[in-house]
Design goal:
The complex is a heterodimer of chains A (175) and B (136).
Chain A: H1 2-5, H2 8-25, E1 45-46, E2 56-57, E3 67-72, H3 77-91, E4 96-101, H4 105-115, E5 122-125, H5 129-133, E6 141-145, E7 151-156, H6 164-173
Parallel strand pairs in A: 3-4, 4-5
Antiparallel strand pairs in A: 1-2, 3-6, 6-7
Chain B: H1 2-12, H2 35-45, H3 64-78, H4 83-94, H5 109-135
Helix pairs in contact in B: 2-3
The chains are: A alpha/beta (175), B mainly alpha (136).
Keywords (chain A): Cytochrome c-type biogenesis, Disulfide bond, Redox-active center
Organism (chain A): Sphingobium xenophagum
Domain Thioredoxin (chain A): 35-175
């Protein structure tokens, strides 16, 4: 017993080395997903973020047809990068609403004039309150909302060209 | 000289990826009037993790989102909400990850048990030593 016990510190030491080494080699996933997937959209009513689009309220998201809710901002560079993909999704007949985070109307107008406007409605979330209520951790993010107004899927980061078929698939699944 | 000018210009330039076009939220960097409420808000903010700078608490972070969260927490405490209710509300959205305060979830039992285990081991060791000394 005593003879075995003498190896305990070394064993513990090696155990810790193995633990830390595995942490070094494991890819680090720092993406924080919303816990609200499968749950109804939190209730919100936001003022209009753009001059030529109506404001957005959560009640307008339950239309019987799945739609996208895009979280973006005019100051966000990857949001400009995903604009062509959102326009392609709109071309494919997907209704897209948006929430502009910590933004101002002239900036949103300039952003939409420059990169195109795929949105039906745009709400302005000046204090990130709705973003926090959604469990969203940054911009851009895109939520798939099913016909009953429930969150079916959350895409974190910009939508790349090769993400578009997957997003369409998620929309079909949310039917 | 040109290098120095370029450096000075770089200092006053607005960063391209600035996180906001707006001034910070009203209560992001302003203390509550009631010191007791401010103490509660501050204690909560120090144990809520920033979504942008993931190794900082929102009390320490300069990220705009952390500022918005501070402002929201202060406003809700001002409205009479309990800090633990706000923490639960945030955990329901972001998971246990968002709170630095360890919970009593089964996965954390080893964390709570370790001190007791180590203390027990120490006592055992001590007892052995005392016995041995008494014998000699």
């Amino acid at each position: 017993m005593r003879k075995l016990l003498i190896w305990l510190p070394l064993g513990l030491f090696l155990g810790f080395i193995a633990l830390f080494a595995s942490g070094l080699f494991q890819p680090d996933d720092r993406v924080i997903h919303s816990r609200l997937i499968g749950q109804p959209l939190p209730a919100f009513t936001l003022p209009a973020a753009a001059s030529d689009r109506p404001p957005l309220a959560s009640a307008q998201m339950a239309t019987g047809q799945p739609r996208l809710l895009n979280i973006f901002a005019s100051w966000c560079v990857p949001c400009a990068a995903e604009a062509p993909q959102l326009l392609a999704l709109k071309q494919a007949g997907v209704p897209i609403d948006a929430i502009a985070i910590r933004d101002a109307r002239p900036d949103v107008d300039a952003f939409l004039a420059r990169y195109g406007n795929p949105y039906a409605r745009i709400g302005l979330d000046a204090r990130s309150a709705v973003q926090i209520a959604l469990g969203s951790s940054g911009v851009p993010e895109t939520f798939v909302i099913d016909g009953k107004g429930r969150i079916a899927y959350q895409h974190i980061g910009d939508i790349r060209a090769d993400d578009v078929p997957m997003i369409l698939e998620k929309l079909r699944a949310a039917q | 000289m040109r290098l120095i000018m370029a450096f000075l210009l770089a200092l006053i330039a607005t960063p391209l990826a600035a996180q906001t076009a707006l001034p910070p939220a009203p209560w992001a960097d302003r203390q509550l009037v009631d010191p007791a409420q401010e103490r509660k808000a501050k204690a909560l903010m120090e144990t809520i993790r920033c979504l942008t700078c993931q190794s900082q608490s929102i009390a320490d972070s300069n990220a705009s989102m952390a500022g918005d969260m501070r402002s929201q927490i202060r406003e809700r405490i001002m409205a009479g909400e309990q800090p633990e209710a706000i923490r639960t509300w945030l955990i329901a959205r972001y998971g246990d990850w968002v709170s630095y305060e360890p919970t009593a979830a089964p996965i954390l039992w080893p964390l709570w048990g370790a001190p007791l285990l180590l203390l027990g081991l120490g006592l055992l060791l001590l007892r052995g030593r005392i016995k041995r000394r008494a014998r000699s």
